[in-house]
Amino acid sequence: MQIAVSGGKGGTGKSTIAINLAIALREHFDLVLADLDVEAPNDHLLLGVELQNEEPVELFMPRFDYSKCTHCRKCAEVCEEHAIITMRDGTPFLMSNLCSGCAACEIVCPVPGAILPGKKLMGHTYLTETPYGFPLATGRLLEGEERAMPIVSRAKKRAQSLNKELLLVDTAAGTSNTVSKALEDSKLIIAVTESTPLGLHDSELILRLAQLMDIPAMIIVNRSDLGDVGKVREIAERYSAEIIAEIPYSENVIRSYVEGRPIVLSNYPEAQIFRKIAERIIGFIGGGK
C-alpha cells in the first residue's frame, strides 16, 4: 500500500505532516517513509538523522570515438533531446546538459565502438534508519543538475525493495512529471494546502492531477486561520475531496522544531490533530497490523 503526501504549493508544511504521520502510523504498520522531493529533501532534518548508506545514481552519457566515427549523423537524428549536434562534416558533439541518457544514439550507431557508454553522476539515494522505528529512503539531486526523474525513480525503487506494508511518500511541490512519478501506484493522496490565493490555486492543480491519475484525495488545510477556508471547501467539493483536518497556525510547531522532537510525540494540543489524521488514514486503509 502506498500513500502520498503532496501539494501544489511549496512551503505548506508538507514534510512536517509527512514525518508526523509516519511516526503516528508506525504503531499500526511496518512502513517506510520516502522523501522524493529530491531537489530539497529535508525529512531527515526534521527527523534529526544524518543520511546513511549512500548509493550513486548515474546516467548513461555517450562518448564518441572519433577514430571510428563515419560522420553519418544518425546519432544526432535520433536524439529527441537535440543533445547531439553535428559539425559541417558530420562530426558529432554532445551537449551533456541536454542528454537524457536514453542511449538511442548508441543503439542506432552503425559502427561498433564508435559510441562508448560513459556515465554521469546525477545524484544519490540514501537509506537511513530513524530512531522512530521506520527507515527513511531519500533521493538527492546534485546541485546544478536539472534532471530529477532518475533520482526520484531510483529512490522510490529503493524504498519499494524493502517490501514494507506501507510506503508513505513525501513528494516535491507542484505537478511536474517527477511528482506524477512519485504519486504513481498511490492508493491515496494527502493534499496539503493553505487558504491563501496561491495555495488555493495550486491545491486545485494537485487535485486535478489526482483526478487525472484516478487516485482519491483527502485535504489537510495547514495554517487554516490565515485565510478563507471556505474557498478550500468549495474546491474540495468540486473534486469530491474531503477535508480531513484544519491545522491553525501554531508556535508549538516551531517549538517542536527547536526541541528536535516531532510534534506528534509532544504533549502539545496540536499532536492530537495528527493522531486523528492517522486514524482517518488507518480507516481508509482498513486496519494495518
Give the secondary structure arrangement, pairings included.
Layout: E1 2-6, H1 14-25, E2 31-35, H2 43-47, E3 55-64, H3 74-78, E4 84-86, E5 92-94, H4 104-108, E6 115-129, E7 135-141, H5 149-160, E8 166-170, H6 177-183, E9 188-193, H7 197-212, E10 217-222, H8 229-238, E11 242-247, H9 251-259, H10 270-285
Parallel strand pairs: 1-8, 1-9, 2-7, 2-8, 9-10, 10-11
Antiparallel strand pairs: 3-6, 4-5, 6-7
Helix pairs in contact: 1-10, 5-6, 7-8
Could you characterize the architecture of this molecule?
The protein is α/β, with parallel strands linked by helices and 289 residues long. It folds into 2 domains: 2-56 and 123-285, P-loop containing nucleotide triphosphate hydrolases (Rossmann fold); 66-113, 2-Layer Sandwich (Alpha-Beta Plaits), CATH 3.30.70.20. Helices cover 34% and strands 25% of the residues. Helix 1 packs across helix 10, helix 5 (149-160) runs parallel beside helix 6 and helix 7 (197-212) packs parallel to helix 8. It starts with a strand and ends with a helix.
**Beta-strand content estimate:** 15-25%
Q: Which bin fits the share of residues in helices?
A: 25-40%
In the CATH hierarchy, what is the class of the largest domain? Answer: Alpha Beta
Placed side by side, the strands forming the largest sheet appear as 3-6-7-2-8-1-9-10-11
H/E element sequence: EHEHEHEEHEEHEHEHEHEHH
- Would you identify the regions where 5 or more consecutive residues have pLDDT less than 50? none
CATH architecture group name of the largest domain = 3-Layer(aba) Sandwich
CA-based shape: elongated
Work out the helix count: 10
Largest sheet descriptor: 9 strands, mixed
Q: What's the number of extended β-strand segments?
A: 11
Cα-based radius of gyration, to the nearest Å: 22 Å
* Span between termini: 13 Å
Average pLDDT: 91
- Going by CATH, the homologous superfamily of the largest domain would be P-loop containing nucleotide triphosphate hydrolases
